[in-house]
Amino acid sequence: MTSLELVLLGGFQARAGGQPVDVPGRKERALLAFLAMPPGEPRSRDRLCGLLWGDRGDKQAHDSLKQAVLRLRKSFELMHPLPVLADRASLVLDGTAIAVDVQDFERLLKEGTPEAVARAAALYRGDLLDGLDVRDPAFEEWLLIERQRLRDLAREAMGTLVDHHLTNGTRDQAAAMARRLLALDPLRESAHRALMRIYAEQGETALALKQYQLCRDALQGDLGVKPEAETERLYRSIQERRATPKRTHIETQPAGTSADTSSLIDAPPRQHDSEPAAPSAKPSIAVLPFTNMSGDPGQQYFSDGITNDLITDLSRFSGLFVIASNSTFSYKGKAVDIRQVSRELGVRYVLEGSVQRDSGRVRINAQLVDATTNAHLWAKRYDREASSLFAIQDELVEAIVTELAVKLDLVERDRAKRKTPGSLSAYDLWLRSRDHLQARKKEDTAAARGLLEKAVELDPNGARLFADLAIAHLYESRWGWSDSQDRSLHIAEDLAHKGVALDEADYWTHWAMAEVLRAKPDFGGAQAAYERAYALNPNDADLLADFGGFHVYLGRPDEAIRRMESAMRLNPYYPDWYLIFPALAHFCAGNYQKVIDLVHRARQPNASMFRELAAAHIMLDQRKQAEAARASVMKLEPSFTISALRRGLLFKDPALGEHYFAALRKAGFPE
Question: For 419-538, CATH number?
Fold first, then answer.
């Protein structure tokens, strides 16, 4: 039985031997929580330093990490020693000596029985590490993603329990769970309908109609859509019951199932005159003039320059609709209401900020606001020496644009996930497909292809839809996931050409073309397409990372590493796949220990990383570690063969690839 317990859902609590343990420091709590998700996985010191002390130099960050571990040990020493195992490269929390509510939550959900799901829902007391403010961009980004992942699991669990209680006739428990689900997700129509039915069944017609109004207002305010037809029909049937209670029947059923419409009025739903027009499917943003806080009107040019450059660089992202500067500068020097700006300009998001110059330094504050709800989604402060104003302006604009693009992407993906299938636009389908496509797994790629095919039907002129559909077919060709790899590659090339033809000025389409041409292989054509994509948008860190990886296949590992490091600086909370290419580059350069170090920095290594790890360990004659990595690959990809991998890893100089394939063969992978 474990003596240490961590409660991370709804806040942070630590207990040793049943007694509370005071862990006073924010960074110490964050460090312990990260090591505990899940416990037992080694975390490299470099990764931890970048996560929590990314604003410090390398030596200072490592010293801060050492001090944080010492303070953690001191917090626990009077009750129970902290089970942190450390070596020069990594830290690991002993999973056998500690219980973590997050792990229990996920384990119970996997069991799947109603009893286990109910216990899991009870464990979800709120957002992961709710109230913990670390103010380090890398950690905040990790926390945002993990919070959303666990919140999604909790929503699905609660929805399942609502259905279960309705099916079993336990109405009070169904109502309680539906209310809890709506507190977590006000847009869950099935939960609104469940409460409407329960209230109507209990004779509380006013409450049922009020529940409909809450549902309608939440959907309109957050998503700009009306309730589903099933919700509208239920609403009309409840209205009729109120007028003629003896004649109307409310069909009780599990949330999310189709109602028996024989007793419902078939007239079209009543339109609500007060509902505003739905926003554009493409996310829209206005950049308000940054306020000059320097106390010197002569410095206004610098604030205006920052604003104009942000508008220009954001406009390069064709996935955004950016309001032109002549519209936003009309608000210059005025006290504005963000919601009024949203209504007048027809935008969902507003970026605002201030610029201050004094004592040889420049300070810029920027914040992103969801104008429809007035919710602050992101904020950042940049503080630099004013030695070169133009260089500072370029640096800050690049940093703001990059972080803003990532944040908008996460927010928009979350909104798309919360929409019901009937309200999905081509843009929503595209957003949903991206998570699947980035997983780079057979089932996910097939799911992405299906979503993109539906999106193309809705929008046959969507250049990015064709570009990503090309990538889906490319993956199926590259990894042998289709009946004919050659045919899939041919389809991918046709789709990529279609994307470029639809929007030649969109870097996204040229990027897709570059990946397809690399697979043919047409290295010259691929390089030209990469160069064109990069010229159109040098601020996309993912593009820079992929372009860097391309240089591995050109036989230029040093250039690949340089570009990948630039991408990591551009996006300091980069995803794990950024590590694949530099690891392969270091392998090609013979730096096998560096390969191992890079893979250990990943939060969740995938099959590609484990392959690189196996190859590096075998070249260092570390056979036990190589076998463990090989086993991980075969667990993730049971049908993996070296010959199939060759189709995806095409080197301009085949000899360079043979070195890698020979190492895999030596490590015991099947030919």
Answer: 1.25.40.10
